[in-house]
Amino acid sequence: MRPNSIEARDVAYHLHGYTNPRAHEEQGPMVIERGEGVYVFDNQGKRYIEGMAGLWSVAVGFNESRLVDAAQNQMRALPYYHSFSHKSHGPAIDLAERLIDMAPVQMSKVFFTNSGSEANDTILKMIWYRSNALGKPEKKKVISRLRGYHGVTIASASMTGLPNNHRSFDLPIEGVLHTTCPHYWKEGRDGESEEAFATRCAEDLDAMIQSEGPDTIAAFIAEPIMGAGGVVVPPATYWQKIQGVLAKYDILLIADEVICGFGRTGKMFGSNTYDIKPDIMTMSKQLTSSYFPFSAFMMNERVYEPIADEGNRIGILGHGYTASAHPVGAAVALENLKIIEERDLVGNAAERGAELQAGLARFADHPLVGETRGVGLIAALELVAPEGAGDARAPGALGLHMNRIFHKNGLISRNVMDAMAFCPPLIITQQQVSDMVDIVEKSLETFA
Ligand code: PLP
Q1: EC number(s) per UniProt (predicted)?
Q2: If DSSP codes are grouped into helix, strand and coil, which group holds residue 218?
């Protein structure tokens, strides 16, 4: 790193999340300067296919001028307003109505927040509030899953089921429990069918509810397909079985659609793909294509009614953020949803997704590949050490190394330990999917 270079200044002044700080001091940043469609360019002018759409986010690609115009127009008309004390504005009202219309099940109200973490954090508060309203103060626990990802605030990080989000942070908080991760390839037992594994996942959940006491469990939160935990596609009957257990005990179902929402799985929501009937749904990322920090959750009547009663009893619903329902974010979201609809990006995700999954499946027998998996335009290639390599490599080392090779070959992926995740913009073309798969092939061939 040259002294005073942009890289050196990053190391000097910028602490990065999800980065080893000491390793960063040594290697410095990858500085991205601009984007165009599915590509981003670094400050050396090198082009990469952004195979992760940033962080599972940029549905419409990296230079969509309609979103820029929507933001600019809204900034000129009303750059900021809030939603406290009965105040509202057109973009928030239009977006709330639009989201309720799009919902996979009948929903009642939308609450706006600014990140996925904040949305899930708020959901937990709302659930506690609701249980108090119902005169069930003991019904406060939430169950999530090992390797699930729900964010990084104190409550949402607690619901996240990944060790690095808990270790040394004194998390999880009390009352947040984690049940089995539905990853057959990793968690399935010898001789156990995928169907039997799904049954066992549901039985594990049932047993946890029984042992904690069904009256103490308020909600179960899960992503339709786990993203940040390594792209975990559940067995076909998993969701049906899990929903059967929840229905037995009057436990709310929260579908965290922060990654799956708005087309990623080839249907509008992951809940459509798996016939999930949530009481609450979390949305962010592809809602604005992450051009603006924005998130929301919607709830059905069963959730809303007691909350409204409690707010009425107290005199106010004592929650909300300065930037809740930010007009610029809402305007960007509305335009983004229009683009997704007009260009049938959900249909494109289904078609290009099938090509991506088939392309990756070709490597299933490669000595470095343990499993390929995915649905629509979300996928993973799980790396394993070749036979005879021993256990010399630390977990995640294969993934980190593969990322370096991908970068050299012009592809950005994200390694979740040794699973290489792919989640490209929904605008990706057939040729670009094929280019991605070619880079993966070349990278596997040159892996050393
Ligand atoms: N929920 C899911 C499913 C996510 O994938 C993420 C982020 O990756 C979050 C919540 C947290 O969102 P944010 O990073 O905007 O706080």
Answers
A1: 2.6.1.18
A2: strand
Give the whole-angstrom CA distance, residue 412 versus residue 421.
9
Strand 217-222 to 141-145 pairing: parallel
Distance CA 118, CA 150 (A): 10
The residues that bridge with 383 in the sheet, in sequence order, are 369
**Which H helix or E strand runs over 354?**
helix 345-361
Residue nearest to atom 3 of ligand 1 (CA): 258
Look at residue 57 and tell me whether its pLDDT is greater than 90: yes
Q: Phi, psi (5° rounding) for residue 179? A: -105, -175
- Amino acid letter for position 395: P
* Pair of tokens at residue 246: 């929840």
Q: 17: Cβ–Cβ under 8 A, 6 or more apart, which residues?
A: 152
Respond yes or no on whether the N-terminal peptide bond of residue 172 is cis (omega within 30° of 0).
yes
Task: Determine the length of the chain.
Answer: 448
Give the contacts of 190 (CB within 8 A, at least 6 positions apart).
Answer: none
Phi and psi (nearest 5°) for 41? -125, 135
Confidence band for 448, pLDDT divided at 50, 70 and 90: confident
Cβ–Cβ < 8 Å for 409, 49: no
* Ligand 1 near 150 CB (within 6 A): yes
- In the chain the domains, ranked by start, together with CATH numbers, are 31-63+344-446 (3.90.1150.10), 68-342 (3.40.640.10)
Query: From the CA of 193, how far away is ligand 1's center (Å)?
Result: 31
Distance between CA atoms of residues 276 and 138, nearest Å:
27
What whole-number distance in Å separates Cα of residue 337 and Cα of residue 340? 5
For residue 256, give the ligand 1 atom closest to its CA: 3
Residue 434 host element (H or E): helix 430-446
Helices (H), 138-281: 154-159, 184-187, 194-212, 238-248, 270-274
d(CA 97, CA 382): 40
Q: What SS3 state is found at 355?
A: helix
What is the rounded distance in angstroms from the CA atom of residue 216 to the CA atom of residue 221? Answer: 15
Does an H or E element contain 415, and which?
A: strand 414-416
In the prediction, which pLDDT does 389 show? 67
Q: Find the 148 Cα to ligand 1 centroid distance in Å.
A: 10
Q: Which of 295, 263, 265, 267 is nearest to 280 (CA)?
A: 295
Distance of CA 65 to the CA centre of its chain: 25
Q: pLDDT of 8-25, one tens digit each? A: 999 999 999 999 999 999
